[in-house]
Amino acid sequence: MKYFLSVGEASGDIHASCLIEALRTQDKKAEFTFLGGDLMAREAGVDPVIHYRDMAFMGFSEVIRHLPTVLGNLKRAKQAIADAKPDALILIDYPSFNLKLAEYAYGLGIPTYYYISPKVWAWKEHRVKQIRQFIRHVYCILPFEPDFYRSRHDYEATYVGNPSKEEVDDRLRRASTREEFLARHQLPDRPILALIPGSRRGEIKNNLMVMEQAAKQFPDLNVVVAGAPGIDLSYYGYYLTPGTPIVTDDTFELMHHAKAALVTSGTATLECALIGTPQVVCYRSNGSKITYNIMSRILKIPFVSLPNLIAGRQIVPEMLLHHCNPKSIARQLNDILPGRPGYDNQLEGYRVMRRKLGESKAAPATASAIIADLLSIRPQGS
Questions:
Q1: Which of 77, 84, 251, 329 qualifies as a cystine partner to 214, CB 3.0-4.6 A?
Q2: What DSSP state is assigned to residue 329?
């Protein structure tokens, strides 16, 4: 069968590449067309119609600034779907763009599936209306999502497992020793405090300076910054003390070998929790108390970080907006270092989170479900 996948950012490229591998394993005649990245290209054996780096515009202002590019990408993507005539369209998160493709594919009679649900349980719940209308099935990677769809919208979604759990466990088995990591990056043999300020320039601008100011209150720890792919090292210089080490393309092992981490809210918080490294979640944005009060009313969830959402209780401290300041971050960090009261509590919370994620393998389970559904709706003899 022919599959068309759509991804709009780096994390989606990782998850979609695993799904392509699973589809190829279960469907020996699988052919792929996709919007995505290099990992997907490696698994599919073809280049992307559009690379995700030319699509990764986040937030209203950024989209407006790049509107001609966004509209051009949408036109190219629709034409690619029409030309490929796929048996299925598979969308991976990135809802602003992907739901437009879903509507287009629906008009062509192409079955459309969502792997990795948009975070409609947190904001923009109105998107569920489009999902109900245009998406044949949603395959969720967070265990609380099916109940949200079922109880609030009478829509059946399926939890297939969490790919981050599988990826982290696999990488932990292959991880370097601490000595190898230190030697590779020419770091001194001192306990590490990892700063993970995000993968986008705006996140780095808003969070890194505050993180480092908090970190300076722990002189016994060696502060090391995780450099994001595609961000020039010179950019970090605007927000860091000269000489602060930056580790590029090795965030996983940096978190693995760190005593603790300050992590910008996002997927990295889940990865850090799965690794088992104590963390404080930081999200500064504009730091406005007014914005905090507005967001508190808009968001429909009690927490913003994935470890807390999955566990169903606070296991990692969340320093958000005006609460994200050096003094507050340092106080929370002090409480979760080894030997401190919050250390054991956080690690126990990580174990609760892992149990709730379960053991299902997300990509193979999703591939199997999609193939079975497509076969069930195929005309006899086709």
A1: 329
A2: H
